[in-house]
């Protein structure tokens, strides 16, 4: 796996067994530079960890003028070949959680190595690189012997600097049975798990860290918790130092040492945690799973531009971007009108699903969100999730074309309307005539250079569509009348119904009753 | 239909019961796990010593991203607490951090009782008295504590 890519939360964690995988477990906490268990680990901006003392010397950085902070003027060349970038000195804080976890492990290992156990472990070093075996010293593979079970013995030779990071171990059979050794290692690991447990909880959600990201100041949170925190404040929640993370948080690499360690040690917890988050975010199965934005009116196939600044809606938009990029747009019910079964809720219960085509975050944390209307829906039930509304919705769809035709035939065949009965007259117009009425009106208004049809408006919404099903949505998007009036289009079930509504607007405008 | 209670609130509540802080208690309502009845004892050596103060605490929807809402129910004579029981405390406002918790907030409030700060007043009248005649102010605070905050059993 490339270290640059952030680790997927949906992956299933594979645990390591304390006896069989003793070598691999110890490698998880070994420094790639000095091969000892990490001491005062620094998690670099690339997500790799190294002992503070194993960082190369700092040097003056060239061509850096922004941001001009003393600690950013010096840097180190990253010792990890897959990164190789220059990291500013300011970004090399000791990783607090990783330090504590390693201290826990070191403490437990120290207790076990105080006295000899009944078990002896004999370890033969396997060098991956054959050429090294040609060295005079290493003609014979190096043998290490320790009076403890595998996991403790392996940790000990690493701590003594006798286990190169890349080397594997051939465990040579000793006097004790493997069952005894297995049981002892299981007990040691359990002790470590128990003592590490509280250290690896996220300070925000109180769950074990999921996809942890570490700030330059060495503090770690779940990626999602970090993102929520920076929505509210650009300061580290733990030490309040100002953070530079937000605009690039989505690309900020995960703390891979912690991820690998947690996956290996708490595989069930990590897997179920990832699943729980996935469910939480969608709000359960097929139920209250649609994020709702009570803000303005949107229409199918029309663009809606939003400036999002409230933290709760920024969270909502981010979750959208991570799932299907859709959220429901609802209009605020300012007069408290009853909304079907829902009663006088704070929104109108018909809305439009918007698809996020582009979200442009700004340094101040707000974003400009460009959306395109997808389909209409009605809210069946609603609730609140993390400060914003969510709901279960059902699509509002037009009747079949056959039904549409039947309706037109029926209405156009009515006896002529009386003189002055505007609605009656509109009812009897053919669907095509209704569309032409609208298009003709637009042409006449353009001829009169109506403000609402200026080029700037057409640049956003395009030319009036020829499709009778869509024309009313376009028309409503550009026409300067009240949103409550335009909202009437959303619950409609037929093309005719919508065109009749737009026709009635035109007649009212023409008779100057508006 | 209520959203399930976040794990964080469940754990915080458990820890408040299992590892109580001396002189502080917070019990959630049976019918609303986000609403707590809080009791804070006046710190020893302060003019609130011997007093038991009741507060109400509410965890808003986006807690812990926003601070708990908290106010004194028991009347108290203090320059940073107004007549409605509202508290002027930086960690409840601009200095709130989601890494803080109910426990730390209640400890901060207890500390505020031990160290009134008339320079950053919420209750101007009390703060004025505190600055002009501190002995008198402390005497009033003691009297109020005896009058309103002595445990009724
Ligand atoms: Zn090292
Ligand atoms: Zn690097
Ligand atoms: Zn978290
Ligand atoms: Zn920090």
Structure description:
The complex is a heterodimer of chains A (514) and B (153). In chain A, 34% of the residues lie in helices and 18% in strands. With 514 residues, chain A is an alpha+beta fold. In chain A, the strands form five sheets. Chain A has a five-stranded mixed β-barrel. A three-stranded antiparallel sheet of chain A has the order 3-4-5. In chain A, strands 7-6-8 form a three-stranded antiparallel sheet, covered by helices on one side. In chain A, strand 9 (212-214) and strand 10 form a beta hairpin. Chain A is elongated, with a radius of gyration of 33 Å. Mean pLDDT of chain A is 86; it is low at 1-10. In chain B, helix 3 packs across helix 4 (134-148). The mean pLDDT of chain B is 91. Chain B is built from four helices and four strands; from the N terminus they run αββββααα. Chain B has a four-stranded antiparallel sheet with strand order 1-2-3-4. The radius of gyration of chain B is 16 Å and the shape is globular. Chain B has one domain (7-149): Roll (Ubiquitin Conjugating Enzyme). One zinc ion is lined by residues 44, 46, 48, 78, 80, 83, 85, 87 of chain A.
